[in-house]
Amino acid sequence: MGGRGRGGYRHGNKRGRTQRRDFRDGRPDVWKKPRAEGEGVADAERGWQPFVTESQAYEKYYKKQGVVPEEEWDLFIETLKKPLPTCFRINGSGQFAQDIRDQMQHDFFDYLKEGIEVDGQMLEPIKQLEWYPGQLAWTLNFSRMELRKEPILERIHEFLKQENEIGSITRQEAVSMLPPLFLKVEPHHRVLDMCAAPGSKTFQFLEMIHKDDKPGCFPDGLVIANDLDVQRCHLLIHQTKRMCSPNILVTNHEAQHFPGLKKKGREYAAELKSADRETGDAVEEEMGLLFDRVLCDVPCSGDGTIRKAPDIWKKWHCGLGNGIHPLQVQIAMRGVALLKVGGRLVYSTCSLNPVEDEAVVGEILRQAGGSLELLDVSSEMPGLKYRPGLKSWLVRDKRKWLTSASEVNRHRAGAIVPSMFPSGKAWDQPEAGSADSDPEVGSRRVAEEADTEDGKEKDNGKEEDEAEEVEEEVPLEREVSSLPLERCMRILPHDQNSGGFFIAVFQKVAPFKVHPKVKEQKNEKRQRNQFKEESAGTKDEPADSVKEVFVNSKYAASGTVKDIEMEDQKEAGGTDEVMEAATEEVEELNGRSEKASGESRERRFQQQGKWKGVDPVLFLEDEHVIQSLITYYGIKDSFPLRGHLVTRSEDVTRLKRIYYVSTSASEVIKLNFRAGQHLKMSSAGLKIFERQTAKETIEHCAFRIASEGLPVLLPHMTKQIVHITKADFKLMLTANAVPFHAFSEADFAKSLRSLLLGCFVVVLPERNAKGEIDLTRSTAVGAWRGRHNVSLLITKAESAQMLQRLSLADEEPKTEEKEVAEPSTKSEQEGTPEVDANATAEREVIAKSKP
């Protein structure tokens, strides 16, 4: 039976749905509790109640674990009951990072460095995070009420909101900034963020790979951001596109099953066959999708975030950590398998529970078998206050404290596993031939014991509660781990007024081989058995019928022939000729040569996506479209389009958007096609072109420059660009549409008339010391050229931000609008494409604007 899904139960692959027949009879509503007399009135009179900020279960658990020294316990609990301060960091790879920092220092921080008084109370000054490099991260601790009462605080709040919208500043919890820093990402690294949403850490990775960018150049690195939830993937896309990077792919997979994209086919088999055993392993490792850096910021109970999510107080129980422990181990081990030798992996949680922290780290080291080293990174972050990892802890289950796996009741063996304990040693296995060794007998006995225990719990609940209090007073001898878990880092909230966090940093020192067991679906198993029967009973039968069965199976499509061949040869002797023929058929199917197919290698990648409900990622190969873009915008050869433009639709005539991917992202997309499209991509690269709506411009070029793609394309454009003076630029910012004759500079109006109808770029130039135009510091905005007027392709809110950046915010935009003549005809207004109201969600119409 299928698992429980959102919106109902799943039966097989279908979602359960309530039918009309279910309402034919007048059935009582058993789900609705009867309300006691006067209950609603009492709730209304009581009004809003504050969150509960205490939990006896929480305090008992962590006191017993010794996570916090006894003398610091009161300070620890007091800190947890206070709201979490607001933290933000400046985009370090931005061109104006230092300018923004200096502006904030001069306008805000210097004024507040001695603190400020509100309602007779001194507020804490804005503080810099000492451990964050470059003095680019800050924290402030003001409530909403205090922001409203003090004008300077309200101005700071508005400034941070505006800068966050355009990507110059990111609001992020302080401890959440740590994992990317410990990964030490370089511009050439391939990075995997396994559980990436909402995207603040992914944004940090993009900053790191773009930190040394030169205008018009892209790094060799790549960031793949993955998340299980589709809606959270959309949030992830929205967060990361502020970076305007073509070096990112967003995927939608279970982290523990993230595909490795191993190559299949004749070429791959030949390489392995020609190599020896050790070299073969190396070849196989290089042929898949592996990463230099992997972040496993895994799902957890989240009790370290209790300051910003106070509802956790009421919901917390020890079963949260116990239940998610196996999943955390699976995700981390999948990350180890995808990591290159010499690469770094960071495991992190926002939980203080050792079952989710040190226990998982210990199991990672045990399963890795010497291929991983737990690093001591205490010297890499000066100024960071942390506590070393625990080497001893207890496991709590069903009103009992457990010191080792040998104390686990048999019927709880599935809920409490040996990896939760410091030693990781398993309980004694039953002898062969006993009742416990028989799966059916064992499962039946477990069910009977569970029923018996449940009955006891219902009848003797009071006695067990009393026994619990007595049991807790008994001293326990704890296991002590022999692994160097003290190298882990625990961030406690009261050390530096932050949230709780846990970090462990690994380095891969040797290859790690994994052979995952894939559970077969019923139809796959039936096809597999059918092939076995036919191949075993038809030795002299022509191989075509057997090949047909084999080719139609999923195993042929994925190319996994080797394991099936070995198993089938054991069970069905004398089928060497049949298996050889079937193997050749599969190799021909997966590794078909270019001569036989009659298509080029690039052409072979153009296929329909295999994921239901997800548009495929296809390379744009329509030469007419590509050439029209090159001709219309004068794109240089230094910015290659062929092999870098991707779409999400096969019908070129109906394309709405075109995306640009870097060379590193393009290689992964091609590898995904070769491997059978196992990678489910929600987003690829950077949106660079959008279809134009005005009909008269389609004869020249059917696409205009997208706001996110302008910073990338501008250094390589030679056409449809005009330079503007500050006064005329102000005029365009304050008016919806400006006639040519309204501009003060005659040369500018003349250059506008020389443009083709449609999209163009307005540049407010900034010159360097040599007097040359510096595009890296100039302001560029997408615009539209109609027959008699021009307009900027931005919203009013974005125009206001531009005016503020140019020190023109004191002037009233509405007054200027009245002074500008409107287009004389309706057709001129229709010649300008409508600016989407959601364009604020597609930030960075400004290519690179100066604060």
From TrEMBL:
Recorded hits in PROSITE patterns, A to Z, give: NOL1_NOP2_SUN, SAM_MT_RSMB_NOP
Q: Where is this region: Disordered?
A: 1-42, 419-478, 517-543, 807-851
Q: Its principal location? A: nucleus
List locations, semicolon-separated: Nucleus
Question: What ranges does the record list as Basic residues composition bias?
Answer: 7-18
According to the entry, every stretch annotated as the SAM-dependent MTase RsmB/NOP-type domain falls at 76-509
Annotated Gene3D superfamilies: Vaccinia Virus protein VP39
Active-site positions on this chain: C350 (nucleophile)
**Acidic residues compositional bias, start-end:** 462-474
Name the residues that bind S-adenosyl-L-methionine.
C195, A196, A197, P198, G199, S200, K201, D227, D297
Report the leader peptide range: none
Q: Which family does it belong to?
A: Belongs to the class I-like SAM-binding methyltransferase superfamily. RsmB/NOP family.
One GO CC term on file:
nucleus
Q: Name one GO molecular function term.
A: methyltransferase activity
Name the source's superkingdom: Eukaryota
Question: Bias regions of kind Basic and acidic residues — which residues?
Answer: 19-42, 441-461, 811-829, 841-851
Keyword annotations for this protein, in alphabetical order, are: Methyltransferase, Nucleus, RNA-binding, S-adenosyl-L-methionine, Transferase, tRNA processing, tRNA-binding
Name the record gives this protein: SAM-dependent MTase RsmB/NOP-type domain-containing protein
For biological process, the GO terms are: tRNA methylation
